Amino acid sequence: MLIAALLLVAATFMARTGLHSYDQLGASIKATEGRVTAQTSTRLSITGTSLNSGRDTLTVMLHNDGQTRLASYDKLDVILTYYTSADTRITSWLPFADSVTADSWRLMGIQDDVYEPGILNPGETAQLEIDLGSALQAGKTNLIVIGSEAGSTISIPFTS
Whole-model pTM above 0.85? Predict the structure, then answer.
């Protein structure tokens, strides 16, 4: 009788542990599915770039082609690889800033921003201004990479 009781208790603990593991696995799969859905519904494209005459300020036109709105600009990653001289290449992550500061970027505005002002909704285009600490070397090919919080990235080469 004692052995049967011990076997019953052991079987109960094993079943409970197994069910708990399945619950954790299910929650993990749901979280992964949510991240993948957010990533696939977030699509960005860069529709244009331009430099000012001093080649130290880059303007980027960022279009939201996806189905997810972007509101947390500080969560966008802007990475720039550029040449400051014929053989000096710099790669840097640039933080979001509310005002113009060297080696940072800011949101200048959103074209046709009628619905939810200040938020980059699907179909809208944001104008980003990147202030560089030094001027870009003329005639060199540089690269900008922008990544969203959901994991969607876009990169485009541009010539200075």
Answer: no
